[in-house]
Specification:
This protein is α+β, with helices and mostly antiparallel strands and 244 residues long. It has 2 helices and 11 strands. The protein folds into 2 domains: 37 residues; 194 residues, L,D-transpeptidase catalytic domain-like (Beta Barrel).
Length: 244
């Protein structure tokens, strides 16, 4: 009887080990399938600005709105709403294929070219609390205004900013449109030439207005999407953002 009991226990242990091994193997297989075949858009990706890239692409101005940046209240300057008219600047009628925007992270500068001719050279502020992506991108939509919100209040980086002016969202095959990276004006700081953003490219309002009018697609309203006939201007971002 004792031999039968011991044999029964051994068989039970073997079965338990085999069953656990089976479950572990199944878990590994399911994890591999999940990683390989889950569509990229369904995976959780950080968003450079949670509101703009998900909820609002209207380009509308918010009357009387105030913002928050790094724990302090920020008023929207009156000049942000002073004009909704696009002002023609150099390059508006130039073939888009000759236009190219370069963002130099190392030196915190933006350069805009028409062919070999530089037409703009501006200071910028790139990602301090989240890195600005590098590579070649295309502008896919231009917004006259939008609200941007993100960061983390627990570590003092939360921001919620209405009426961000002259916004040009860009993307490529690796950085999807839903990530919310953009070139845009910044009225909440004046520290251009140094990293100050959560991943976007901050510019002085007077500078980004010129770039916005110059870059494609040609703006026709508060929201303008690139099309096959009017592709967004090429944006190349390179270098390494300084640790400040």
């Amino acid at each position: 009887m004792r031999k039968k009991a011991r044999k029964k226990r051994r068989n039970s242990i073997r079965f338990s080990i085999s069953f656990i091994s089976f479950l572990l193997g199944l878990a590994v297989i399911l994890a591999l399938i999940f990683a390989l075949f889950l569509p990229k858009f369904a995976r959780s990706e950080p968003c450079a600005n949670a509101i703009s890239c998900i909820k609002d692409l209207s380009g509308a101005y918010e009357e009387g709105a105030t913002g928050i940046f790094l724990g302090r209240n920020v008023s929207v300057p009156k000049y942000i709403a002073s004009s909704n008219e696009e002002r023609a600047v150099l390059g508006d009628t130039t073939n888009n294929e000759s236009k190219h925007i370069y963002v130099d992270l190392t030196n915190q500068r933006l350069y805009a070219y028409e062919g070999k001719k530089m037409v703009f050279n501006f200071p910028v502020s790139t990602g301090k609390w989240y890195p600005t992506p590098t590579g070649d991108f295309r502008i896919w939509v231009k917004l006259r205004y939008t609200r941007m919100s993100g960061g983390d209040s627990s570590i003092g980086t939360y921001y919620n900013l209405p009426n961000v002016p002259f916004v040009m969202f860009f993307y490529n095959n690796e950085i999807s449109k839903t990530r919310g990276f953009a070139l845009h004006g910044a009225y909440w700081h004046n520290n251009f030439g140094h990293p100050m953003s959560h991943g976007c490219v901050n510019m002085r309002t007077e500078d980004v207005e010129k770039l916005y009018s110059w870059a494609n697609p040609v703006s026709t309203s508060n929201t303008t999407y690139a099309t096959s006939n009017d592709q967004g201007t090429l944006v190349t971002i390179y270098g390494v953002t300084p640790k400040e």
